[in-house]
Amino acid sequence: MYKFDYTRATSVAQAAELLAANDENQLLAGGQTLIPTLKQRLAMPATLIDIGPLGDLNFIRAEGNAITIGAITCHADVAVSADVQRHNPALAALAAGIGDPAVRSRGTLGGSLANNDPAADYPAAALGLDAKIHTNKRLIDADPYFTGMFETALEEDEIIIEVTFPHPEKAAYEKFPNPASRYAMVGVFVAKTPIDIRVAVTGASANGVFRVTQMEEALAKNWSPEAISDIKVPEDGLLSDLHGAADYRSHLITVMAKRAVAATM
Taking the CA of residue 87 as centre, how many other CA atoms within 13 Å lie in the half-sphere pointing to its CB? Predict the structure, then answer.
């Protein structure tokens, strides 16, 4: 590791002030991505600002037609929450399938969305459910929030406070995980809400999570696996690596999408 300073934030306002003081300062929540990158000397922060102790960011609250989850709520708590399991079982199942027990007990919702790893699971849920990302400055809709691989609409001193997920009428998440890392080689979140139908894909694109509008239009007419069985996402822009070529990932998108729709029936 490179040498860095460490401080525990006592409030969101203090954390934001510290972030703004130096563009090389970084937030630390669960640390499931940041700590390994520090060990590999891939990150060189001036100061780590630990927001883990901010208990007011750790909650799950069912209100009206949505569930709001605090930014430092860990994956394991989302997975076992009675409210999430009742109102949004697809989100609970997604959280239960992240990494391993150690990762789920430390990794956080806000950290995952702020990092926006192209193979992470939560971005698919956020985009698939049209989640609302609340920060210390504003509310950001899911569509404009995700801007590319490891990139988001967050400003330098902007911190995720909580995320609101609308209750879906139907929803499911299916992923083909890398057997070693459990990251999604392809993960597809499908959701039918009173407003629209969404199909969000993670793990497949060099630009991160994205929607498949052709599948959404087909499912709006006929909510069935057969409606999307012949729809293929173009290989251009899809990841191709030692784990799977672009044409393989294109095929997996259709397979996982069909499985997700079938799981809701």
Answer: 19
Co-location of 20 and 59 in the same domain: no
Domain count, the chain: 2
Query: Do 152 and 228 have their domain in common?
Result: yes
- What amino acid occupies position 78? V
Tell me: pLDDT of 74 over 80: yes
Answer whether 131's CB lies under 8 Å from 164's CB.
Answer: yes
Domain of residue 11, residue span: 5-50
Sheet holding 197-202, edge to edge: 170-177, 184-192, 197-202, 210-211
Task: Kindly report whether the global pTM for this prediction surpasses the value 0.90.
Answer: yes
d(CA 250, CA 106): 32
33 and 159 share one domain = no
34-53 as b/e: b if 16+ CB within 10 A: beebbeeeebebebbbbbbe
The values of phi and psi at residue 232, to 5°, are -120, 135
**Separation between Cα atoms, residue 241 and residue 244, nearest integer Å:** 5
| pLDDT tens track for 106-164 | 999 999 999 999 999 999 999 999 999 999 999 999 999 999 999 999 998 899 999 99
Q: What is the DSSP string of 188-256?
A: EEEEE-SS-EEEEEESSBTT--EE-HHHHHHHHH--SGGGGTT----STTB--BTTB-HHHHHHHHHHH
Half-sphere exposure of 233 (CA within 13 A, CB side): 30
Contact partners, residue 21, CB within 8 Å, separation at least 6: none
